[in-house]
Design a protein that fits this description.
Elements (H helix, E strand, L loop, with lengths): L1 H26 L1 H36 L4 H18 L3 H11 L1 H21 L60
Amino acid sequence: MLGRLLLLFLLTPAVELGMLIQVDRLIGFPATIGLIVATGIVGSYLARREGLNTWHRLNERLNRGDLPGTELIDGVIILVAGALLVTPGVLTDAVGFLGLLPPTRALIRRLLMRRLKSKVEEGSLQMQFGFFGGTAPGPNGTGTPPDRPPSPNGSDDSWEGTGRQIPRHTDEESSDDAPPSG
């Protein structure tokens, strides 16, 4: 993994520099600078527009009580694409624009999901939550849940809240004020 990252960070700038030199030879220095500035401006606009669209879709799904998996992945793709577009270069701009266009973003999302699924199935996916391997801080600022009395059966799987606060993981038909099942 470190070798791939090292190769990426060494090879990408070298390729970008070579491509910018070739573009400079074809269209001239002022036009090359104009192209870099134009792709940065257009890329920023597209990233903002697509990011806001995705943000609205994410909020709609959350308001319905659904899990916004597609929107979260789209948000990450848009974030990376936007970062690539504000980085000067021909190759990074091309890849960035691919991440911002909805049809190619859907293709990238499918490829990412396929790769993620294969990593999960082979057991080679490692996820870490929190900082430096610890647990993520909870509402009381620590990695432990807030103090509350244990549930009657000795387990800590009780839900404190309304039915509206429970995310629906399936297409269940339930009313918003129904008590949580359990």
